[in-house]
Amino acid sequence: MTNQMVVAIIIKLFFGFLAALTSLLLWSKTRDGAWLLMVLGVVFLYLETLLQILDSFGFILYKKIEFSSIPILPLIFEVVPFFFFALGMFVFLLRIRRFK
């Protein structure tokens, strides 16, 4: 592993942790369902980063579980955060439309 990869991993972990922490703090202040879905998206993105790092160091076999030669866990952790983001925005838009 090169120094550039180590620096990139450290930066990704730091800002991922910062995003997850601040999103949890924001949700605890608002207690809103739409924000909860956004927080879940951020947390899943951070979990994806952690799993990729653990896989690159050889601690877990992140890409070994396959279905029809498609790795299942990477697919889930790449799609689920954006599903939660989209669902959170949809809930927010529905709530805005309901009050007009």
Descriptive overview:
Helices cover 81% and strands 4% of the residues. With 100 residues, the protein is mostly helical. The protein has one domain. The chain has a two-stranded antiparallel ribbon with strand order 1-2. The longest helix has 28 residues. The chain is flat. The protein starts with a helix and ends with a helix. The mean pLDDT is 87.
End-to-end distance, in Å? 55 Å
What is the succession of H and E elements? Answer: HHEEH
Q: Give the number of DSSP strands.
A: 2
Number of helices: 3
Structural class: mainly alpha
Helix content: over 70%
Tell me, briefly, the overall form: flat
Strand content: under 5%
Average pLDDT, to the nearest integer? 87
Poorly predicted runs: none
How many domains?
Answer: 1
With strands numbered from the N-terminus, the spatial order across the biggest sheet is 1-2
Radius of gyration: 16 Å
Largest sheet: 2 strands, antiparallel
Supply database-style keywords.
single chain, transmembrane, 3 helices, transmembrane helix, Lycopene cyclase domain-containing protein, about 100 residues, mainly alpha, two-stranded antiparallel ribbon, flat, membrane
Summarize the structure.
The chain has helices spanning 3-30, 33-57, 72-99, and strands at residues 66-67, 70-71. By secondary structure, the protein is mainly α.
